[in-house]
Design a protein that fits this description.
With about 100 residues, the chain is α+β, with helices and mostly antiparallel strands. About 45% of the residues lie in helices and about 30% in strands. The chain has four helices and four strands; from the N terminus they run βααββαβα. It has helices at about 10-15, 20-35, 60-70, 85-95; strands at about 1-10, 40-45, 50-55, 75-85. Strands 2-3-1-4 form a four-stranded antiparallel β-sheet. The longest helix has 15 residues, at about 20-35. The two termini are about 25 Å apart.
Length: about 100
């Protein structure tokens, strides 16, 4: 499985309903599992992003579908990045000639 880091910002709707953020997180975790994505951890943060999520997914298409589904609910907008584990980075660096 590939790892991803997703940076979330609450929308106006998400901020208005911020008291439900834990419930939304639980619902997102359940939906992720149905779609083949595993939420490894979620962190509520201060600064430019409100939540940081670490995800495992089988491929870019699956994590993109999950991100789009969560965004379509109107509470968050996201920026998702592929993250490489140490062993993956070693393999990538081995290809540099």
């Amino acid at each position: 499985m590939a790892m991803y880091v997703s940076l979330l910002q609450f929308t106006d709707q998400g901020v208005r309903n911020v008291k439900d953020t834990r419930k939304r997180s639980e619902a997102a975790t359940a939906e992720a599992e149905k779609m083949g994505v595993k939420i490894i951890n979620a962190f509520w943060t201060m600064g430019a992003y409100d939540v940081v999520i670490l995800l495992d997914a089988p491929n870019d298409e699956t994590v993109s579908a999950f991100s789009l589904k969560m965004g379509s609910l109107g509470n968050v907008k996201s920026q998702t990045m592929r993250a490489f584990r140490v062993e993956e980075m070693e393999s990538i660096l081995a290809k540099i000639k």
